[in-house]
Amino acid sequence: MQTIKLNNGVEIPILGFGTYQITDPQEAEDAVFEAIKAGYRHIDTAQSYMNEEAVGKGIVKSGIPREEIFVTTKIWVENVSYEGVKESFQRSLNRLGLEYINLLLLHQPFNDVYGAWRAMEELQESGKIRAIGISNFAVDRAVDLAEFNKVVPQVNQIEINPFQQQTANIAALKEEGISVEAWAPFAEGKNDIFKNKILTQIGKKYNKSVAQVIVRWLVEQDIIVLTKSVNPSRMAQNIDVFDFSLSDDDKEKIAALNEGESQFFSHSDPQMIKWMASRRIDV
């Protein structure tokens, strides 16, 4: 598996298996087991996904040595504070059944981000976390965090897909030494993405699916990609992207699909911020 070297030297597999919306415990456990069986060595979860325990069980069930699996989890908004991170991180660790986490992210750019970041720096120094980062942070917020703390975020996990390409933001984050990770690369099927004429035509040229074309498009930009499926055959398909390369013409056609806005919601929408602030999870 191809890897990306983060700004602290930690290597992360460029393809990861996402577990968002896999809430049934048995289904989540089975999905993680099947993903690892298919070749994934990078598993992404979060406190708010409510499946950390099942993810941990799936990892154990796989039989693959812990040191070969890269595990990410995320701190939810209500726990974004110094004490909140320290306390909730330990609960996440316990649920996962692990002694350390490879990557810990602040899930959203809200609440006491700076207090939370100091706690994450300390946890990283202690060895309980190998890398620390952020998710859904605008570039200016990411730079602000980096400039006024000891550790520059190693990762920013943001929405990237053919309809929301974030080209300028990706370039700016990389300029700061922050690796970029894409969530919702398939836009969760919005806009009939899997039937998109341009993506379908490109796929036919290489005998690949639309999903494989999208993953390859991101990999060629050195972007870490999270894909999700509970179907073992699709899991295997989504990881099978290292035997072809997109042409410049292909990339130009994909670039033309960019709508330049989120396919889900705006993180600057006051109502969305209030909703996140009000959402409580059992952690």
SSE blueprint:
Blueprint: E1 3-5, E2 11-13, E3 15-18, H1 25-38, E4 42-44, H2 52-62, E5 70-75, H3 82-96, E6 101-106, H4 113-126, E7 129-135, H5 139-147, E8 155-159, H6 167-175, E9 179-183, H7 197-206, H8 210-219, E10 224-227, H9 232-239, H10 248-255, H11 270-278
Parallel strand pairs: 3-4, 3-10, 4-5, 5-6, 6-7, 7-8, 8-9, 9-10
Antiparallel strand pairs: 1-2
Helix pairs in contact: 1-2, 1-9, 2-3, 3-4, 7-8
Site (Lowers pKa of active site Tyr): 74
Keywords: NADP, Oxidoreductase
Domain NADP-dependent oxidoreductase: 15-258
Using the coordinates above, name the CATH class.
Alpha Beta
Using the alpha-carbon principal axes, give the shape.
globular
Number of helices: 11
Instruction: Write the CATH architecture name.
Output: Alpha-Beta Barrel
Q: What is the N-to-C order of secondary-structure elements (H for helix, E for strand)?
A: EEEHEHEHEHEHEHEHHEHHH
| CATH homology superfamily name | NADP-dependent oxidoreductase domain
Major beta sheet summary: 8 strands, parallel, barrel
Number of domains: 1
Strand order of the largest sheet: 3-4-5-6-7-8-9-10
**End-to-end separation:** 33 Å
Structural overview:
With 283 residues, the protein is of the alpha/beta class. It has one domain (3-278): TIM Barrel. The chain has helices spanning 25-38, 52-62, 82-96, 113-126, 139-147, 167-175, 197-206, 210-219, 232-239, 248-255, 270-278, and strands at 3-5, 11-13, 15-18, 42-44, 70-75, 101-106, 129-135, 155-159, 179-183, 224-227. The strands form two sheets. An eight-stranded parallel β-barrel has the order 3-4-5-6-7-8-9-10, surrounded by six helices. The two termini are 33 Å apart.
